[in-house]
Amino acid sequence: MDVAEIHMLPRAAAIDTALITEVSDLVNLVYATAEAGLWNGGADRTTPAEVARLVAAAEIAVARAAGEIVGCVRVRQVGPDVGEFGLLAAAPRLQGAGVGRGLVRFAEEHCRLLGRHRIQLKLLVPHGRARFPADWFGRLGYRVEKTASVEDTFPHLVPRLAVPCEFHLYRKNSIERNSWFQLSLAEQGIHFA
Ligand SMILES: CC(C)(COP(=O)(O)OP(=O)(O)OC[C@H]1O[C@@H](n2cnc3c(N)ncnc32)[C@H](O)[C@@H]1OP(=O)(O)O)[C@@H](O)C(=O)NCCC(=O)NCCS
User: Fold this and answer.
1) How far is CA 176 from CA 88, 103, 117, 138, 184, in A?
2) Does the CB atom of residue 97 touch ligand 1 within 6 A?
3) Domain segments of the chain: what residues?
């Protein structure tokens, strides 16, 4: 049985090319499936250069099991009382094992410790099509606060989209204390075969 541990990557890790590539490859692998059919030409979700920039800004947390990166999330502060996460990914072979939930809880606790009480994420949703994480975020306590057209929010993305989409802003208005992430996830009943 392996155990996953979640931690913020130190800024200095931005020059660790192997690590940056591992994170970038994981995100692109996961989003190639999660966003299949959404983009013209199946563009990558991120690049090593972007991941390195986010690590240097201390915005990337990773989950590791047996030394391997099995998940990641980007966390940042977008207002005096609001944090935001994105680029959430769990390794396909471990999906359903609790890595994603652990990363969301970690992001919440990180923001709470920085004095934020609210946290949000933006989810790109194809018109008229359910997306698995939408229900899942609901179960984690997130509610859609508003929806916005891609044209209004990120117009440069419009020509790249293969199907009409909109952004859903999910928010949680009261972050609870989540100190357990400091423990091994295994102690919370999250195990890997
Ligand atoms: C969303 C994501 C991070 C969840 O990670 P995970 O490690 O599988 O999450 P967890 O194991 O903590 O929870 C998975 C839950 O979804 C359920 N689930 C797993 N795969 C599912 C699927 N294909 N359809 C519906 N439900 C599914 C599990 O049963 C579990 O349910 P529960 O919360 O009631 O226990 C992961 O699926 C992923 O990387 N998706 C692609 C990227 C993405 O869409 N990110 C979100 C946008 S920011």
Assistant:
1) 20, 15, 8, 15, 19
2) yes
3) 4-187
pLDDT confidence tier of residue 187, bands split at 50, 70 and 90: low
* pTM, to two decimals: 0.90
The model's confidence at residue 148, banded by pLDDT at 50, 70 and 90, is very high
CA of 12 to the centre of ligand 1 (A): 30
**Could you tell me the CA-to-CA distances from 125 to 19, 36, 67, 119, 149 in Å, in that order?**
30, 12, 33, 19, 10
Closest residue by CA, ligand 1 atom 18:
96
Exposed / middle / buried, residue 26 (Cβ in 10 Å: 0-12, 13-18, 19+): buried
- Tell me which residue has its CA closest to atom 15 in ligand 1: 96
Rounded CA gap, 190 and 81, in Å? 31
Q: Please report the sign of the dihedral spanned by the C-alpha atoms of residue 185, residue 6, residue 167, residue 37.
A: negative
Any idea which fold 4-187 has? Aminopeptidase (3.40.630)
Q: Alpha-carbon distance 83 to 122, whole Å? A: 12
